[in-house]
């Protein structure tokens, strides 16, 4: 995993590959957060819609 050194010509981690590992983990974390946000967002929106419907049903009976 020396693509950073190959692409940019500098060795910030002195060739150990730790910088590349951090980049890969960061990209995976961002991707995972995006996917979970989307999934959680759909769930939350569905719950909010259900609560609003229930609230409007109970308050429109008057």
Describe the structure.
The chain has 62 residues and is mostly helical. The chain has a domain of 41 residues. It is built from two helices and no strands. It is rod-shaped. The termini are far apart. The mean pLDDT is 81.
Q: Indicate the structural class.
A: mainly alpha
Give the helix proportion (percent range): over 70%
Output the radius of gyration: 24 Å
The H/E string reads HH
Note the main sheet: none
* Poorly predicted residue ranges: none
Beta fraction: under 5%
Counting H and I runs of at least 4 residues, what is the number of helices?
2
Shape: rod-shaped
End-to-end Cα distance, whole Å, is 68 Å
* Average of pLDDT: 81
